[in-house]
């Protein structure tokens, strides 16, 4: 993709307004926290102090709306503590240019590395750099530093206190995550009625698992319907796919396919009912037609063999999901243990390991930290050198728009500029026409903050419109000359955005160059998942369900990293190096089909008293070795070889009798092994040098198995 086309595409994406899920009461509560801090500061001190002290409550409120499963009060308090430290250090160094520049560069570098810990930590760390830049315009005595740092911290404490005093929809985010998982499976069931190889996006299940991780304190207080249902959702997914897939489930045409479609429609209705009940905390209202199927499972005599077994298992799982959502019935035996969040003392070594993994020259987070450090220092020097005043706005813009990847950085840069122009224009028009006083300007600023929190999920450009108006009203409250300040802000915002974009162009971290690495990791994870599933058949009495679950989680994580890399690479203005777009497309289809094979076989894992299948263990061992070698081949730009797997399968087939047994598990297992070899050949063909990269039928299965 050329630079011009890439910039045009990212600009359109940055200006896109999305449909969000607003939280009006939570937004009102967070805006109330800002109002409390501003009002107290106006009453006790001055408008200038009120304008600066509002940053703590404002930033803590933003942190509570981030995509994090930690309690909102904890997010507010941790954000307030980080902002207070940043404020105090910025105050102490602000009167001396060289020490402040060193502090700013080091602090910005640390804030960039914080992205190794996740988007929430990265966003909060960026806010700490922003507050350090803002406070440099204020008095710089040690007493003043302590005073203002305390005001910043008080704003976060106010936000946390309001959350405790006025709870809004307790466990709402966890309810939504689990409900979204069931709703996604309902949509999956409907798509399977029309396309037996329909894809399934694992993101809702991954989010539901993240939401299920709780602290011991939370575990004692979590509603019963939020515990155990996630395990049922995980088990329903492969059964749906197994029933619909004509290779191991219902026949492609005829009465069996018609009955399978009817059962899939019933499953979709039941899963939707469970999702609604979990989201709103009400009883499950199952439609009458679905109720007949749930409590009269003998309605489908046309289903035979593996399809009938899948149908029976699906009906049992749907009934268990209804009972669990209604608070009755036993908990899912595979999910009785809580997923506990590490304690605070355990977080530091985990964080250090995450940062250490990114401390490499080619790592995107490390490069982001270097860019952020240099741009903040350069932006501050340029801003102070220009005769515009408020020079910190240039680096402030840079730190808020810069992200570890090209796409988000350019999207946010365009969105911030456009949103700032619109917000400042609207705010200036209101001030110029209405001439509001100090308290009226404060009220308008709080109103802007409420709109920001309310519309936070609709897109960055909308957020910047609200921020632009908010800043104008704060400046009006403080009595600043509005015309000159607004002009300066727009020019410095443009400068900061240009610095951020130029930094990425000069010192990039392209996802395109990482595609082979991500594909190798995904292929190895898919092989590990398949091997774990086959090993469960090799020795049923000693099989470890956690091994299959853990390998599936690793497959999902690797698949998500691959999808993210492909999406970002498609928007980058560089050519694919060593991996053409055709190869990317076909390799994606082949590895997704690998995961689907494991999905189909996992749906019929044998009971512990089932006879062992030693050949499955030999196939699993060969598969692990072959996928490790294949990962090396992919990294070194060679087509992977699968002779070990093919030899293990041939040995297995030589040991089988002429007429295979009629049991469902052996049929599924043997068919899965055959599909495995076919899919491995497709992957090798996709990555063969100078391959035409023809599209394979397995492409329709993209994402289903994760």
UniProtKB/TrEMBL annotation:
Integral membrane bound transporter domain mapped to chain residues: 380-502
Sequence intervals crossing the membrane: 42-63, 75-94, 100-117, 124-143, 149-166, 372-393, 413-431, 490-510
Superkingdom assignment: Bacteria
Membrane topology: Multi-pass membrane protein
Subcellular location: Cell membrane
UniProt keyword terms in alphabetical order: Cell membrane, Membrane, Transmembrane, Transmembrane helix
InterPro entries per the UniProt record, alphabetical: Memb_transporter_dom
Family: Belongs to the YccS/YhfK family.
Protein name: FUSC family protein
Organism: Actinacidiphila acididurans
């Amino acid at each position: 993709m050329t630079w011009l086309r890439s910039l045009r595409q990212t600009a359109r994406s940055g200006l896109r307004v999305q449909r969000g899920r607003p939280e009006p009461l939570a937004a009102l509560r967070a805006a109330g926290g800002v109002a409390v801090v501003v009002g107290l500061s106006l009453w006790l001190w001055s408008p200038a102090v009120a304008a600066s002290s509002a940053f703590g409550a404002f930033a803590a409120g933003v942190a509570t709306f981030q995509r994090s499963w930690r309690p909102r009060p904890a997010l507010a308090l941790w954000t307030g503590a980080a902002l207070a430290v940043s404020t105090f250090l910025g105050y102490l160094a602000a009167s001396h240019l060289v020490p402040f520049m060193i502090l700013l560069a080091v602090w910005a570098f640390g804030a960039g590395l914080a992205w190794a810990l996740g988007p929430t930590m990265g966003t909060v760390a960026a806010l700490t750099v922003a507050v350090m830049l803002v406070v440099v315009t204020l008095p710089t005595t040690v007493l003043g530093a302590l005073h203002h740092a305390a005001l910043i911290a008080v704003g976060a404490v106010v936000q946390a206190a309001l959350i405790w005093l006025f709870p809004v929809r307790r466990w709402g985010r966890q309810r939504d995550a689990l409900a979204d998982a069931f709703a996604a499976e309902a949509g999956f069931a409907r798509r399977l009625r029309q396309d037996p190889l329909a894809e399934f996006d694992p993101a809702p299940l991954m989010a539901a698992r993240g939401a299920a991780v709780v602290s011991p304190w939370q575990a004692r207080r979590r509603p019963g319907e939020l515990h155990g249902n996630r395990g049922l959702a995980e088990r329903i997914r492969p059964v749906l796919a197994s029933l619909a897939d004509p290779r191991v489930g219902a026949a492609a045409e005829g009465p069996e396919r018609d009955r399978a479609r009817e059962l899939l429609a019933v499953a979709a209705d039941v899963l939707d009912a469970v999702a609604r009940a979990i989201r709103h905390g009400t009883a499950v209202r199952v439609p009458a037609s679905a109720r007949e199927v749930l409590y009269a499972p003998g309605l489908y005599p046309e289903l035979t063999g593996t399809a009938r077994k899948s149908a029976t298992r699906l009906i049992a799982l749907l009934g268990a999901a209804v009972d669990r959502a209604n608070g009755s019935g036993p908990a899912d035996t595979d999910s009785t243990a809580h997923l506990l969040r590490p304690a605070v003392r355990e977080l530091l070594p985990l964080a250090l390991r995450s940062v250490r993994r990114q401390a490499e020259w080619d790592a995107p987070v490390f490069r982001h930290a270097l860019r952020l450090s240099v741009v903040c220092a350069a932006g501050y020097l340029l801003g102070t050198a220009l005769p515009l005043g408020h020079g910190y706005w240039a680096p402030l813009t840079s730190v808020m728009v810069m992200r570890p990847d090209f796409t988000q950085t350019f999207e946010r840069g365009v969105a911030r500029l456009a949103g700032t122009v619109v917000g400042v224009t609207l705010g200036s028009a209101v001030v110029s026409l209405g001439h509001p006083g100090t308290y009226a300007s404060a009220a308008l600023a709080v109103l802007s903050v409420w709109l920001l929190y309310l519309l936070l999920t609709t897109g960055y450009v909308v957020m910047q419109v609200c921020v632009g108006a908010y800043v104008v009203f704060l400046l009006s409250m403080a009595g600043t000359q509005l015309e000159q300040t607004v002009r300066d802000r727009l020019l410095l915002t443009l400068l900061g955005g240009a610095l951020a974009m130029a930094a990425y162009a000069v010192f990039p971290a392209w996802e395109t160059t990482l595609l082979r690495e991500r594909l190798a990791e995904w292929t190895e994870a898919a092989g590990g998942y398949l091997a774990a599933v086959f090993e469960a058949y090799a020795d049923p009495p000693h099989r470890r369900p956690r091994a299959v679950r853990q390998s599936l989680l690793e497959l999902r994580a690797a698949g998500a990293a691959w999808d993210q890399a492909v999406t970002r690479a498609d928007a980058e203005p560089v050519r694919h190096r060593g991996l053409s777009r055709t190869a990317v497309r076909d390799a994606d289809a082949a590895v997704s089909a690998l995961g689907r094979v494991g999905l189909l076989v996992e749906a019929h894992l044998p009971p512990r008293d089932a006879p062992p299948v030693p050949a499955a263990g030999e196939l699993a061992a060969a598969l692990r070795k072959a996928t490790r070698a294949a990962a090396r081949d992919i990294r070194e730009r060679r087509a992977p070889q699968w002779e070990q797997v093919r030899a293990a399968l041939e040995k297995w087939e030589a040991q089988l009798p002429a007429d295979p047994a009629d049991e469902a598990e052996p049929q599924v297992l043997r068919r899965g092994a055959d599909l495995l070899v076919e899919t491995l050949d497709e992957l090798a063909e996709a990555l063969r040098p100078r391959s035409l990269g023809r599209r394979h039928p397995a492409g329709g299965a993209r994402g289903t198995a994760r």
